[in-house]
Specification:
328 residues; alpha/beta; 20% strand; six-stranded mixed beta sheet
């Protein structure tokens, strides 16, 4: 009886102690886009393939999705990756006063996305988040339409697959206050996009919680490192996030779109990046992939990326869908 009493006291003490420890915070769960399935359980948590693409938006609000994005989802159906990461600008958008048109644009894209039969996760772009009357600041009405039409609770979030973590950020944030110098209403030479303090706090907490993951992939619309050094987020955001990533050895790739081209800062500019091995004290690899169908920037070509995760290594295949333009 004494032994049983001691055991019960020990269990009760541990229970009280455990309940006093706050749960480790993370980003909210990220849902696949409406009409696309949840990913299946990996047969091998250390070895899988996924696809990255973005910026498929049509040329105008009355235009339909083009042939490039249809080709990508045809390929997705054939390749059968574990899931797809999309870096935003899935619609032309910009019209919160015309919700019927916005609903139709989302339905057009989602109808194509679900033909691949694979989970698609999106990090929204400025065309989903802002208003044509003010491209600098996010629109609450556009945010509400994005969440409702795409089966989302937040415009950012994360999920775990196998031994890796995947984090989506919203680079046209409306949750303040913004970092210093990032106020979208201020007249300045900084680009208009920013990631607010709520997201940055959740990002750090998520990275702290997932130090056991082999790889962490972060995807967003506006890049931290753009082609030819063209800034796409306010400089305070860029420096804060790059300094944050220095504290982790498993932040593997930071993926973005917005610029309608492919860019590899590791060089050569338009070549696939080298194999990444984690853990690593090197900074993460920054890639821009904005070639899923929108009008191309100079030097751009339509494309998508195939990521192959194999244990501690990550390799990337660049799938070109059009010829490279001559750079000015």
């Amino acid at each position: 009886m004494k032994y049983i009493a001691r055991t019960l006291r020990s269990v009760l003490t541990l229970s009280i102690f455990a309940s006093a420890i706050p749960a480790l915070a993370q980003m909210p769960d990220l849902n696949p886009l409406k009409g696309t399935p949840s990913p299946s359980t990996p047969a091998n948590k250390d070895k899988f393939m996924f696809i990255v693409a973005g910026d498929n938006r049509p040329y105008a609000g009355t235009s339909r999705q083009g042939k490039t994005v249809r080709k990508i989802f045809d390929d997705i159906g054939n390749l059968k990756p574990a899931f797809v990461l999309w870096s935003g600008d899935i619609i032309y958008g910009y019209e919160p006063g015309n919700p019927t048109r916005i609903d139709g644009q989302y339905a057009d894209f989602l109808g194509i996305a679900k033909t691949g039969g694979i989970a698609v996760y999106n990090a929204p772009g400025n065309h989903e988040m802002t208003d044509s009357s003010n491209h600098k600041c996010a629109s609450q009405k556009m945010l509400d339409l994005y969440l409702a039409d795409n089966n989302q609770v937040h415009p950012y979030g994360a999920f775990t697959y196998g031994h890796s973590r995947f984090i989506a950020l919203n680079t046209d944030d409306d949750e303040g206050p913004p970092p210093a110098g990032c106020d979208c209403t201020t007249s300045r030479h900084e680009p208009p996009g920013f990631i607010g303090k709520t997201q940055l706090k959740l990002l750090k907490e998520d990275l702290d919680t997932n130090t056991d993951k082999a790889h962490i992939f972060i995807f967003m619309h506006r890049p931290l490192v753009g082609y030819k050094g063209q800034a796409q987020l306010c400089s305070k955001n860029v420096s804060d996030m790059q300094n944050l990533f220095k504290n982790y050895t498993n932040v593997s790739f930071v993926l973005a779109g917005h610029q309608h081209l492919y860019y590899n800062p590791e060089g050569p500019d338009f070549g696939a990046p080298p194999v990444r091995t984690d853990p690593s004290r090197d900074p993460p690899y920054y890639l821009v992939s904005g070639g899923a169908g929108a009008g191309l920037d100079p030097c751009g070509f339509h494309h998508y990326l195939i990521f192959n995760v194999d244990g501690d290594k990550v390799s990337v295949d660049l799938k070109r869908l059009s010829a490279t333009k001559l750079c000015p």
